[in-house]
C-alpha cells in the first residue's frame, strides 16, 4: 500500500467489465486483478502509464487514456479521485429470446401479453424477440383448450330456483394423495352455478357427501331439492341415495347409458380442469404426480403446482375443509 501497510490478497485473476470508449460501451478484460475482500476497486494511473497508455486531462474533470494513439478507457475526476467509467457484466440466467420459453414460464400467457412485456421492457431476454416469433403453437394449450363435439342443446322448460336442481359427478385422480384421497366429488347448483367439492378416499363415501350437499343447499337457500342429476355410476344408484330421493320426493335424473358427457353442465367443467391439469403435469418434473381439482379462477392445482412442492401441494389439498364451497 502507499503507506507501507499490508493487505490480505485472496486471489489474482482476470475480470471482464464494460468500459466506455468513445461513447460506446465495450467489453474489456483487466488482467492481474487482486481480490481483497471488503476493499474498494482501485486502479493505479501509474500502472496504466507503465503499460504504455497515455493520459489526457482536461479542465472539465474528464480524463481520457490513449493506447497507440487510439482513444481508450475514460474516467472523470471526483473528490480528488479518478472514477473509471466501467460497469459490471451481469449474468442473466433467465435471459432467453425464445418466446415459447417465456410463454411457459409465465403460466402459458397469450401472445399479446408477450408483446406488451417486450415493448414495455418489463423482463430481460425479450429485447431481440421479433413480433412474428410469437406465432408459435403450444402443445399444452392446444390439448387443454381443445373442444369435443357437443351434444345437441335441449331447451329447458323448467326454470329452477337456487338449490332446487343439483348436478353431480365423481372424478378420479391419477395418484393417491398422502392422506389417501384419490377421488373428488363435485356437486353444482344449476341456477346459481354454486359448487361444492368433496375429496374422497373411496367411492363408497359418495352417498354421505351427496346427502351433506343436499342438506347444505336446503339450509342456505330455503328451497328443497327437486331434481338431482348424475351419470349411471353405482355410487349414485346405491340404496341409500335412492331411498333418500324417494322419501323426499326428489326426481333422480340419470344420463342415458354410456352417455355421461350428455350432462354437459357439470361434465364440461370437470373435463376442462382435468385436461389442463393432465397436460401441465405431463411436462412437469416427474416428482409431481398428483392431479387434484380446484374450482374458481384463482384456485386450480395446475396453477398451484408451479409454486408448491409435491408434499406441500398434497397437504394443502388434504387439509381443505370438506366440503369446499365456492361462489362463481
Automatic annotation (TrEMBL):
Q: Where is the Integrase catalytic domain?
A: 158-328
* GO MF: DNA-directed DNA polymerase activity; endonuclease activity; hydrolase activity; metal ion binding; nucleic acid binding; RNA-directed DNA polymerase activity
Keyword Zinc included in the entry's annotation? no
InterPro entries recorded for this chain? GAG-pre-integrase_dom, Integrase_cat-core, Retrotran_Ty1/copia-like, RNaseH-like_sf, RNaseH_sf
Q: One GO BP annotation here?
A: DNA recombination
Q: Which keywords describe this protein according to UniProt?
A: DNA integration, DNA recombination, DNA-directed DNA polymerase, Endonuclease, Hydrolase, Magnesium, Metal-binding, Nuclease, Nucleotidyltransferase, RNA-directed DNA polymerase, Transferase
**Pfam families according to UniProt:** gag_pre-integrs, rve
UniProt keyword Hydrolase present: yes
- The protein here is known as Transposon Ty2-OR2 Gag-Pol polyprotein
Origin organism is Folsomia candida
